[in-house]
Amino acid sequence: MWKHKHYRNTFLIAAISACLPAAIIGLFVYFIGTANIEAEAKRTHQNQVSFATERIDSNLAHLETVIAQWSFNLNLSNTYGNLDVERDFYNIQQVIYRSLTWIKASDPLIDEVSLYLDKQEVLIKENKGIQKFTSKDSLQDYRALVSYQRDIYWTDTITRNPNAAPYMLVVRLPGGLATTEAALIIEINAKQLNRLIGELEPGGEGSTMLMQQDGRTISLGLNPINQPTELDLLVARVIGENEQGSYVETLKGQSYSISYATMKRIGHIWKVATAAPLAQLTQPVELLSRLVIYSGCFGLLLALFLSWFASRQSYRPIRKLALLFRSGKQSSEGTDELDFIASEWKHISRESQMMQERLDTQLPTLKESFLLQLVQGHLYFLNEKEIVDRMEQYGWDVQNTIHSVMMIQMHGLSHHEGKFSPGDEQLVTFAASNIVGEATNGRAMACSVINFQDLTVGLLIRFAVDMSEADIKATLYHLADELASMLYNLLKVHITICVGKSTRSLSSLADLFDDTRKALKYKKLDEQQQILYMDEMMPEGSHAINYPFETEKEIIQALRMGSDTELYQGLDHFLAALQQQSDKEIQVRQGLLQLFGNIQNTIMLSGFNPLHLDEGETLWEKLFHMDPKTTIQTIKDKLIAPYLQEMHQTQDIQLKQLVEKVLHTIQETYMKDISLEYCADLHGTYPKKLSVGFKQVTGTTFIDYLTQFRMDKAKRLLIETDEKINDIASQVGYQAAYFNRTFKKHEGITPGQYRERQSK
């Protein structure tokens, strides 16, 4: 076989290809690659500095936001200018001192908090009390703070605290166009700021610093600010002479990568810089390059042996993978398989990333919508296993858990101490749900907050199944008491909390929430905080009840949903179950009358008058004297059928109005990332109902209508403008690659081809 020229040439090429690359790569890395590694290290170093700068900027921005919020919440019963610091005990002790203490505790970067009163010429500190100025120079420094043009700003003019950083945050009070009467002064904790900056220093061998735009140093990280090292001085000089980026400088024979980034503070620009030695990055590369050369020489014999086998086997998996990617697509002759695979893989990765981003964006809304539908009874058609599977898909751990229910109701918005007024119901409910969520976050039990948008907040609490009933009750009572006190103190509205019962069945949650909500009606009107307990209000009896409650629940749910077939089948099943459980005819008659009353109550709650439906005919006495089958048939004919007819007529009108609103939403926000779930949540319905209704009214699905609408807009932009295709894709709500594929799928040609054809 060696005599054959083609085989010999192929074998020699394979052998040389197997041996030479390792040696070439080693030499390249050793002589040339070091410079590239340094450049890559500089880029990596710059990225690290940028990321760290964003984190530091986030901490300082959080501090600014917190202080700005506190300046609005520092409400006195008098103005700052008219405040009597010697006699006004309430404002000084109960408001100012307490607020200053809370402000200091709100962020670890705060070292000291002071309030300067300009008219009184005093300085109030949270830990030292009221201080008067001993010198006119010091007083003039503080007066300069209140005359500054900005409402909130950073300054380094009067910092005298050795434990504080040279910069402090000042908030003029009150802000805006009003005459400034006071200044809230926040001194930054130097140790905390130095620690935050010092975390950038790699292994203690480099340098980090925070500087002002004019070159003055704010922090040197772990080094004292008054004792800069030679490296610190070098870093300061480099960033003063160069623009933002990364540079390599040499000090005492050692190379350092110096990078810095800027961040905007109020009225200032600060620079975060760091220097890291390059030796610790390049030394491993030099050693690795030598090993590559030695390994290439040592592997020569092995490479000669494996070349023949590798040349035949290496292409086989590539060919299989290329055929797999080309399944269902046209084969493009002359295209390199590896390039094709890489292109397809990038495309799949981009689509996967887009889908993941959309899922992450929509997941909280989907979870909230699912839980709201579950507790309101709209998911009655799901059995226990299906509910468990759905909840686990959304990220809830519901295996081997006990579920407890709690309802929180706010009322008394208009009382004299309140912060809200009628019309703020949704705002109050939103604020309460956020407070409850923050209060329950991080506790041993898992809690889910449900915002009912009607001054009512639900709380679904999950405990481990091995937890005793007494411990569960004690935990719920303690939590209810804590939430009632917290909500009243923060919102200044009356709070009523009802602690419901517990269950291991997820399908019974709707009934538990309904019973707990009804129990809220037994609250006392004049109490500011009150807690009701279902176990104490509604004790369970021991008598046997021959009544098919579960079947009645299915009937009521089908009645609410307007499901004709399920409703009529449920009535027949109810009669059969009632006759099977009862041994006397009077019990069957009483059960049917009970069902009749509950159906009437459900119809009334849905906004329909039963007397209007049965044309004023009184059915109670007639039903009592009928046999059971005739009673069921009469309920169907005289009550159910008229109700369903009027309900469907009303639903058709409401459905058309709903779809019209959704169409308007599409026309206004088609350029954004909207979905069926988003529109359903925006217009107060659930996705399944909107999907069916949209198809019924428009004759097409939601996604098809949205896609066609976007394509029409894109075609108009392609014809009427000269904008780039990527920009047009962004304007109609798509990423460039996905837009090209979607456009070609609908029009048969690419956007560029469409524009060219229309221009001709």
Brief summary:
This is AraC family transcriptional regulator. The chain is an alpha+beta fold and 760 residues long.
Overall description:
With 760 residues, this protein is an alpha+beta fold. Among the domains are: 74-192, Beta-Lactamase (2-Layer Sandwich); 399-537, Reverse transcriptase/Diguanylate cyclase domain (Alpha-Beta Plaits, 2-Layer Sandwich). It is 57% helix and 15% strand. It has a six-stranded antiparallel beta sheet, with helices on both faces. Strands 8-7-11-10-9 form a five-stranded antiparallel beta sheet. A hairpin with a 4-residue loop joins strand 13 (446-451) and strand 14 (456-464). Helix 1 packs antiparallel against helix 6 (279-298) and helix 15 runs parallel beside helix 17 (585-605). The longest helix is centred in the N-terminal third of the chain and has 69 residues, at 5-73. The chain starts with a helix and ends with a helix. Mean pLDDT is 78; it is low at 1-9 and 330-334.
The helix count comes to 26
Largest beta-sheet characterization: 6 strands, antiparallel
> What fraction of the residues are assigned to beta strands by DSSP?
15-25%
Q: Rg to the nearest angstrom? A: 37 Å
Which descriptors apply to this entry?
single chain; Alpha-Beta Plaits; six-stranded antiparallel sheet; five-stranded antiparallel sheet; 26 helices; 760 residues; 15% strand; Beta-Lactamase; disordered N terminus; alpha+beta
List the helices and strands and how they pair.
Elements: H1 5-73, H2 89-105, E1 110-117, E2 122-125, E3 129-132, H3 136-146, E4 152-155, E5 164-173, E6 182-189, H4 190-198, E7 207-212, E8 217-219, H5 230-241, E9 245-251, E10 254-265, E11 268-277, H6 279-298, H7 300-313, H8 315-325, H9 337-375, H10 384-393, E12 401-411, H11 425-440, E13 446-451, E14 456-464, H12 469-491, E15 494-503, H13 509-519, E16 529-533, H14 534-537, H15 549-561, H16 564-581, H17 585-605, H18 610-613, H19 620-624, H20 628-669, H21 676-682, H22 687-698, H23 702-720, H24 725-731, H25 736-747, H26 751-759
Parallel strand pairs: 15-16
Antiparallel strand pairs: 1-2, 1-6, 2-3, 4-5, 5-6, 7-8, 7-11, 9-10, 10-11, 12-14, 12-15, 13-14
Helix pairs in contact: 1-6, 1-7, 8-9, 11-12, 15-16, 15-17, 16-20, 17-20, 20-22, 21-22
Organism: Paenibacillus baimaensis
Protein name: AraC family transcriptional regulator
Pfam family, one: dCache_1
